[in-house]
Amino acid sequence: MTKADVVNALAQKTGMARKEAADAVDLFLVAVRDALERGEKVSLVGFGTFYVKEKNARQGRNPRTGVKIQIPRKRVAAFKPGRAFRQLIGAAAASQPTV
């Protein structure tokens, strides 16, 4: 599902104009991004939590040349699904046949 699909679904389910729905989705994404930039958690009850995770510096290697390199410390965005969301996805996965 793409951002455009989310906008279309929001517009269809709420009766909003597509432009208003696009603005609402953009506003939500900016709010989440800004909070993560400040190092805050964004918790959506029943869905999950977006947070910033610190990754330590580590030794790596260039797969093409095999030369060892130092990978610097960095911050990455992470998502932890809430219990209700995990159960919903788990139930959906259990009901589908495996390939």
What oligomeric state do these chains adopt? single chain
Write down the secondary-structure element order.
HHEEEEEH
Using only C-alpha atoms, the radius of gyration works out to: 19 Å
Shape descriptor reads extended
Spatial sequence of strands, sheet with the most strands? 1-2-5
- Derived from helix and strand composition plus strand pairing, the structural class reads alpha+beta
Helix share bin: 40-55%
Number of helices: 3
State the end-to-end distance.
22 Å
Strand runs, count: 5
- How many structurally independent domains? 1
List low-pLDDT spans. Answer: none
Q: Note the main sheet.
A: 3 strands, antiparallel
CATH class: Few Secondary Structures
Relative strand content:
25-35%
Overview of the structural elements:
With 99 residues, the protein is an alpha+beta fold. The chain has a single domain, classed as IHF-like DNA-binding proteins (HU Protein, Chain A, Irregular), CATH 4.10.520.10. 45% of the residues lie in helices and 27% in strands. It contains three helices and five strands, in the order ααβββββα. The protein has a three-stranded antiparallel beta sheet. It has a two-stranded antiparallel sheet with strand order 3-4. The longest helix is centred in the N-terminal third of the chain and has 20 residues, at 18-37. The protein is extended and about 55 Å long. It starts with a helix and ends with a helix.
Protein traits:
two-stranded antiparallel sheet, HU Protein, Chain A
